[in-house]
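User: Need the bound-state model for calcium ion:
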Amino acid sequence: MKNISLLKITLTVVVLAATAPLVNADEATPKNLATIMAATSTNNQFEQLDLNKDDSLSLIETKEQKQIHDAFTKIDLNNDAAISKEELEKFIK
Ligand SMILES: [Ca+2]
Ligand SMILES: [Ca+2]
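Assistant: Bound-state model below.
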């Protein structure tokens, strides 16, 4: 009997340990792009992504930032295949 209850406790602990990170990950998932962008300043984000420092983001430069990359054509208001800082700021607002 003693062994069985010990096994139950062990299982409970294992289950809790396995589910806890999932719950935390859920809570940490940003609800939308605005949440992510609010966490860091637009300027910093933009400058980090703008690898060749030409003050615009190409599709390739945004590939590290999935949300921006996926919405690239929506953010690029003038369809010049580049996202300017203004376009990014308008999209975030
Ligand atoms: Ca660039
Ligand atoms: Ca553009």
